[in-house]
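Hey all, sorry for the wall of text incoming. These are the two entities for the joint prediction.
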Amino acid sequence: MPLDLADIQGVVLRSYKMPFLRTLILRIDDAARVKTLLASLPVRTAECWDAKPEYCLNIGLTADGLKALRIPDETLNSFPPEFLLGAAGRAAAVGDTGVNDPANWIDPFRSTQVHILLSLTGQSHEILETVTAQIRSACSGAATEVFCRDGYAPADHRAHFGFVDGISQPRVAGVPAQKQDTPEFSDPMDLVPPGAFVLGYESAHPGHFYPMPAPDALGRNGSFAAFRILQQDCFGFENFLDDAAKQTGLDRELIAAKLVGRWRSGVPLSLASEATQQAAVPFDQWNHFDHSDDPAGRKCPLGSHIRRTNPRRSAVAGSGGETHRIMRRGLPYGAPYDPQNPQDGIERGLLGLFICGDLRDQFEFLMKDWVNDGDFAGLGADKDPILGNQPAPGGRFRIPGPTKPQTVVRGMGTFITTRAGAYFFLPSITALRYLAGLPG
Amino acid sequence: MSPSESKSTPAAAPAIKQNPLTLIMTVKSPADFAALSAMLNKFLSMPRDKNPIDVALDKLAKVHFARFVFMDNNTKLAVITSYDDSFEDYINDFIDAIGDIFNALLAHMADAPALPVQKNRAAFLDYVRKNDLRCLGTFYSAYPTLGVKTILAQAADAE
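and here's what came out:
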């Protein structure tokens, strides 16, 4: 079945490649007016554009938001249990415990007032301000803005830990390339079936369609997303590299690359084991590896961040590393880290939207089994060195060398802290109209 | 699935990594027993790299031990395993890897769920929940924190 690109929200299948992001969270005050409003907003779909627009707007609804819209109980209960429980209710399943516990989240994410996500990306800060003013005017008296935070694309594409980010994304079958996009990276991985991200199509599990909310007009062509505000401790990360270099005698930049799986330049260890080899790897080849030539992780450690969150063709427990993919959207927030002023008191991190067809089988599976556990790769209880919620004495990371024995780094802290979370349903255009037509 | 899990609020990672499965399935008839027995004996007599059950379990790397036992005058078939983590979390992987084996087994069972299991995953999960006797009290493990992949990796390192 061909994808109905005009009915699917663009953020699900498209990277807009825009430098400015604004995340608005609304609380619904007047259900009837909000239903009409949702159907009238200029939501960007997944269709190809003739010319790159000035901005793109996409919408998500939480379970609390659907309740506030007063949709029938039968309809609400047709949503998957983890979505109904929400991010706070599922915290333990994804490692949001201890310092990441929802009790420590920022307002309003500890409350039931997170109803609507408006994700606005633009080519300039000015267009975000213009569109935001229009949205605020349209929402006046119908919904209250309870949160707003901006993100931005760093000039050199390096996220706060100093690594070039956004290189690898699932390539979805049936999605034509966007006009005027930069050429894609060469990628040996198979195309991902669209049902991995869009409801109503076959998922990456053969014969399986992810459960879809009813009725069809509401569920089909929708998606789910985990919204996360992830604070990054750059000072702690850099200090750990110094400590790990002392522990092991290895170069701190080699350790940094081993933790992530790529050099800070973005070049993967799989193609450049030595720092001096980076320049020889052409830009369009930065995704051209699948780990099948490196079963012991001697080039790219089994426990590195990119190999955990996307094992590709590594021999992992389960049916394989290609069946639990997520689509990553988001941009950094907070001023860039300045090593000359490391303790500037500025909060910085990532505004992330992790999109999937089934929160439990993809986002939660990845966080629980691949990020916050290590057995799937034979690593015991070791956790992701970048994203893992490390135990109190500090985490452990193993760096296999060219031959045995491996180097073990200890005392690794938690470098990324969850500051907020919410589970959103990303309805189709048809679903937005369906909601507008509901009585009451 | 572990006894602590429920349908609406699945549990987080268990304190003991391994869990027991004691799945008791009711055979339709003596003729179905004969067919099942022939099929299982054929599989179980194959070398490991040809036995489709072993091949699937090797790929999954979540099951420590597994065995089949006919019970109650061959009117029931028990599948008894010790496996890692949450069965519900890995249900899709499990069906991807070994779904066809269960299709073949369940074709001979009374009250079987809709088949094939690949297209009826929730029904299969419900069937397993309903027919899993689990175990009395807590599940004993000599190595409660170690999963299959980690044990295999440590064994390889020790060689």
